[in-house]
Amino acid sequence: MTAPIRCREDETFVLNLGPQHPATHGVLRVKLTMDGEYVVKAEPVLGYIHRMHEKMAEDRTFAQFMPNTARMDYLHALAYNHGYVLTVERAAGIEVPERAEYIRVITVELNRLTSHLLWWAAFLLDLGGFSPLLYAFDDREQILDLLERVTGSRLTYCYFRFGGVYNDIDDDFITGTRNFIKRLRSRLPRLYHDLVTKNIILIKRLKDIGFVSKEQCRKYGATGPLLRGSGVQFDIRKNEPYSVYPEFDFDIPVYDEGDCMARYMVRMDEIEQSMRIIEQALDKLPDGPVRAKVPKILKPAAGDYYAAVEAARGSFGCRLVCNGDKSPYRLKLRSPTFSNLSLFGEVAEGMLLADALAFMGSLDLVIPEIDR
Amino acid sequence: MSEYWNDIFGGTKSLLVGLGITAREFFKPVVTEQYPWEVPVMTPRFRGHIELVKNAETGKPNCVVCGMCMRSCPSGCITLAGKKPEGEKKKVLTQYELDFTKCSLCGSCIESCNFNAIQFSKDYNLASTRKEDYLFDLLKRLEEQS
Amino acid sequence: MDTSIWRPILYLIGFMAFAGVNAAWLGWAERKGAAHIQRRNGPKEVGPFGLWQPLADGIKLMTKQLLIPSGTDDILFRIAPILAMIPALTSMVVIPFSGNIQARSIDMSVLLIFALASIGMFAILLGGWASGNKYAVISAARVVSQSIAYEIPMLITVITIVMITGSTNLQDIALAQQGGFWHWNIFRLEGGHFVYMWIAFLIYFICSVAETNRAPFDMAEAESELVAGYMTEYGSMGFGLFMMGEYLNIVVGACMTTILFLGGWGSPFGFLPGIWWFLIKIYILIFTIIWIRWTYPRTQIYKLLNLSWKILIPFSLVNLLVTAAFIKVF
Predict the structure, then answer these.
(1) Distance (Å) of CA B104 to CA A148, B108, B118, B125
(2) Do A203 and B22 form a contact (C-beta atoms < 8 A)?
(3) Nearest Cβ partner of C297 from A1, A134, A202?
(4) What are the chain A neighbours of B43 within 8 Å (beta carbons)?
(5) Main-chain dihedrals φ then ψ at residue A346, nearest 5 degrees
């Protein structure tokens, strides 16, 4: 719903949304030029949580940088672990045992579930519904308990190693995961769809709000649910398969509408697809070692290496330039939300403040990942 | 026009369904853990800050002061020192300090250790307003434990 | 009726005490209700079931420094919270809790209550304006447009009730509904007409939720958009008074709904004295309001106005016309 806006210079005022604001979920600042409740111009301002992760990589060994990857996108930390590990493995030519690959897929997908559940919860909070937040957290807590049992931490996992994973999963984890999937399947239709997705207030707030076209996605390099919500079928897991993803049967949900509701539905469908992947991986889980023999200090040959993975928010790319030393010469991390946020200024123009914030919520921003 | 009536009837129905769901949740038991009264048990792989491991036979730390943990730490939060007493082959640990303010609990130190000398503790009640409280003297901690 | 000056004063003190206790403990009820809907415990440390929590909160709020930011309109900033509380308290004067428990039976009591409710809206407008905060000003502007939009259907439905009863005195309106639930305005089974009055009840109830700025219509304090809306700059008891004003408005709204539609103190079956039925009815309504708040996401300002102008106002107008026709014909 975009009403025509009169944009007289002397009638607008500047509203600083953030760096401390309940809707920005972190220290993002958006400088809004407003005409009453209409946004005339929106300018995201970054840099409040810049920690120089890329520079830090340059004076650490390859293994020492592992904990940093989890601290970028703290909601889908394992995908970032995965992207970095894949790049280094490509550089050093390390073979990963099959069981380790399966464990990686299972944990990454579980982590994707937590990320989507938390997005759902936080998005509903942006829209003013508080109870769904705690229902989603109840489910998310179950996954965190499972992952804590294998990885040892609850949020900033540092579980993957070059050539495998830190340690093996046990039977308790497998039965726990199966039980959890059963539980989430039984809760999804009622607590998620009946309570929220079909709610008239939510539909009215999300339908036709925040339209993002395919061209805009291409222009800004948007990926992830944002791109798939705009009708482009692109998912690194299918388009440039890595790890053991080709062995699983799963769909890439795509919606053509391009509005907030489409992005919402893409994520809700991805929850179901992730559960399918986990179930298949648990069924096919082979025996064997979980970690290949890898020297403690890696010295990959000089060269330029790249790997990309599909994180919950879009494709995370990792480009590594080595000069034969024990630490990277240059590490460039391509984080999906940075591109996704760049859209915000253009799309939010002419929106109401409330709609602009609903749109921002549907982008699923994680600020530490934008400002690496 | 039909959309108008759909919005009214369908909308009202969806709202009533929502109320029904929250009403049912209202009568279900509480799922939260009442923290100070119920203390969670940490899983075996829980990563607390590190602590030294005692040798079961000698009662001394397993550590041989090789310094691998110090070198593998990404943040440089481990300081250790040892000396070789007269007439012995191995070095003996005299100082092992962990600066927990810098530690990110990655576990690189434990992985790099070949002598099973350090492990994750299960402490999680670590809140303080003073920075000095996080400079752990692990050797002293080991003595206090025994 | 006794016209001595003591009767209204004593009753007023009694009602104020009732209102104050309600304003404080509804906060507890809200937190407890929300907690159980979300499968948490809510307040439980202070006293049994956390029942003394409002006292602890009150002490905390009162001992905090009254901070007035620079650049605010000092006088208005101080007046606004008081103004939010007073009209709601004053409306308690004319509400009949039972046939003889009422401070003052005024002939125009319905009008008086709606006039006072509008003053409550002014308090928010003044508070938002005086804060000199952009979020607060946006919130104040939202409150006004919302109030105007929702007072119209609300008053139209009230006119319907006034037409049926033939009086603007709340006491008379309640008296006309005595003798079993089929006499209540919401059902009105006798005579066969007015069976559609539940639609009027729904319109009135939605409007009273919107009038008191409760979720899903809490546009004024939409915390994810406007931080805390008109209360952004308020701390200590200024904030406390706004909160109490909000809860008092809920109590008044529930009392009005009970009197206008649910038969006032009239018992549906005949046992228990009237005052208990009145209290039961208002607390059921209050709980419903809390329940609604913790179920739905927030609407958006245009959707809110659409609901009022496109659905509630036409429906209430049709309702008014049909009722007028029935009264004239039968």
Answers:
(1) 16, 10, 16, 16
(2) no
(3) A202
(4) 148-149, 152
(5) -75, -40
Show residues of chain A in contact with C297, CB under 8 Å. Answer: 124, 127-129, 196, 199, 201-202, 205
Rg (CA), chain B: 27
Chain length of chain C: 330
Q: Are B1 and B7 in contact (CB under 8 A)?
A: no
Taking the CA atoms of A211, A122, A126 and C38 in sequence, report the sign of the dihedral they define: positive
Describe the crossing of helices C109-131 and C134-165 by its angle, rounded to 10 degrees: 180
Residue A240, Cβ density class (10 Å: 0-12 exposed, 13-18 middle, ≥19 buried)? middle
Residue C210 near residue C220, CB atoms below 8 Å: no
Say yes or no for a CB contact (<8 Å) between B19 and C40.
no
Q: Could you write out the DSSP letters of every residue in chain B?
A: -HHHHHHHHHHHHHHHHHHHHHHHHHTSPP-S--TTTSPPPPPTT---SEEE-B-TTT-SBS-----HHHHH-SS--EEEEEE--TT-SS-EEEEEEEETTT-----HHHHH-SS--EEE--------S-GGGGEEEHHHHHHHH-
How far is the C-alpha of A273 from the C-alpha of A251, rounded, in Å?
A: 7
Which residue type sits at B78? I
CA distance A253 to A270: 7
Which residues contact residue A220 at a Cβ distance below 8 angstroms, ignoring those fewer than 6 apart?
A339, A340, A342, A343
Neighbouring CB atoms inside 10 A of B79's CB total: 13
Q: CATH for B50-145?
A: 3.30.70.3270
Whether residues C301 and A126 touch (CB distance < 8 A) is answered with no
Q: Nearest-CA neighbor of B62 among B93, B89, B99?
A: B93
pLDDT in tens, C30-79: 888 888 888 888 888 888 888 888 888 888 888 888 888 887 888 888 88
Task: Give chain A's domains with CATH numbers.
Answer: 9-370 (1.10.645.10)
C283-318 pLDDT, tens digit each: 888 888 888 888 888 888 888 888 888 888 888 888
Q: Which residues of B touch C287 (CB under 8 A)?
A: none
A127:C216 CB<8 A = no
Q: How many Cβ atoms from other residues are within 10 Å of residue C324's Cβ?
A: 13
Extents of the domains making up chain B? 1-31, 50-145
Q: How far is the alpha carbon of A105 from chain B, nearest alpha carbon, in Å?
A: 20
Give me the count of residues in chain A.
Answer: 372
For residue range C182-238, list pLDDT tens digits in order: 667 776 655 556 667 778 888 888 888 888 888 788 877 777 778 887 888 888 888
Going from N- to C-terminal start, the domains of chain C cover 6-329
- Give every CB contact of residue A62 below 8 A, 6+ residues apart in sequence: A88, A162, A298, A300, A326, A327, A328
CA distance C217 to C302: 11
Tell me, what DSSP letter sits at residue A196?
A: I
Which H or E element spans position A85? helix A77-92
Chain C residues interacting with chain B (CB cutoff of 8 angstroms): 33, 36-41, 291-292, 294-296, 310-311
Element (H, E) at A265: helix A260-284
Confidence tier at B91 by pLDDT (50, 70, 90): confident
Report the pLDDT value the prediction gives residue B128, as an integer from 0 to 100: 85
ipTM of the shown complex = 0.81
- Please give the Cα distance from A40 to A345 (Å, whole number): 10
